[in-house]
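Reviewers of the previous submission asked for a worked example of the structure-prediction workflow described in the proposal, so we include one complete record here. The input consisted solely of the amino acid sequence. No template or homolog information was supplied to the procedure at any stage.
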Amino acid sequence: MNQCKAMCCRGSLVLVLTSGEVNDFKEHAESLGVELAITRTQDGDGWVRFSAHEGEHCPMLDSFTSRCRIYEDRPQRCRDFPDVLTSGCAISGG
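From that input alone, the workflow returned the following structure tokens.
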């Protein structure tokens, strides 16, 4: 974790969430006082466009420490990262 620079949480990326994760993400945002823009699909899933949030990063990323504020309860996509070699990401081997 000390090698992580939160590259996967910054920039023009989109985090896809399941319907259950959308609800969890909203609850975390409310408890942290974080503004959140989630686009929902007809089936209840959703996505968060990082560029739509202040600092152009995941709204759950602490911009001062580069740590996830909901790490223990982060979405599955975040848990699965990195799934490919990513240039500049030491955790992925890139």
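The first strand starts at residue 14 and ends at 17. We consider this example representative of the routine output the project will generate in years two and three.
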